[in-house]
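Hi Prof. W.,

I finally got the Thymine dioxygenase prediction working! I wasn't sure whether to trim anything, so I left the full sequence exactly as given:
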Amino acid sequence: MEKAAVNEDGLVIPLIDFSKFLEGDEALKLETAKAILHGFQTAGFIYLKNIPIQPDFREHVFNTSAKFFKLPKEKKLEVGWTTPEANRGYSAPGREKVTQLTDPAEIEKIRSAAPDIKESYEIGREDEPGHPNPWPVEQDELVGFKSTMNNFFDQCKALHIEVMRAIAVGMGIDANYFDSFVDVGDNILRLLHYPAVKSEVFKINPGQVRAGEHTDYGSITLLFQDSRGGLQVKSPNGQFIDATPIENTVVVNAGDLLARWSNDTIKSTVHRVVEPPKQEDVHPPRYSIAYFCNPNHKSFIEAIPGTYAAESEKKYEGINSGKYLVQRLAATY
Ligand SMILES: O=C(O)CCC(=O)C(=O)O
Ligand SMILES: [Fe+2]
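And this is what came out:
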């Protein structure tokens, strides 16, 4: 197997060649699937290379995303995020708070309140009844935005299905076990922009981050990052470890619903985005794209066969996927 993408403080995140699963013979498929599952069971994170999404298209999507965030604020607010049920549209950055307080209690208050320095735009599947995507007007630079994003959405949707097949093969259950749970594509494509920020913002307030620590909610997240860095994953010992960008890879992490579905045999690991490791007075903007994969909203999620020996070992009640996700979203927005 490859050298791990990350190996520090007990956190080992494997780097896996996904073409070996997609195109390999039975033995190679199985070996690769087991490595993928093992990564999710131990780190909760893996890096995949040689995925079917082509590097030049990925770059085009990143360029297209940057064009959206360059729109004037009013234009972005016209397509604002509305409700957890829709979970689509633009979210503005929290206003920056830079203070010179000295009282520790006050500092703690501000620290915990320090808003993430980020803005995002979320896109859902186009054909979900009652929840149209609020697309920006396509003029000038933005011509082709919708078709690019919908194309990327569909390619990520297909990759989700393949990664779930790898998990199934790794678990030794039917390779297509998850297909009917993930075929609808109730997923969310989130474009992320972390604006340029002075390094001193992080120095003045040690609690300041670009994105606060959290776990994701769904089945898996496909996380495409640029080369800036700053993503960190919590090790089993509780330290945040850099998940350094590796060109043309996608970081894939398991979400809470997959952890629950797997009867906690798969981990949903805490991660965050902090000041980039490279020393600079002003950090340039960072762009990333998170594709949040979910089981179909209509799916009923209960322990996957093989993740428990006796009924009494099932840790959770079954739950409706859509209901679970809306509850989680409602708590954060
Ligand atoms: O921007 C990143 O690298 C991480 C984003 C993330 O974890 C999220 O949006 O859930
Ligand atoms: Fe996340």
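The radius of gyration is 20 Å. Does that look reasonable to you?

Thanks,
D.
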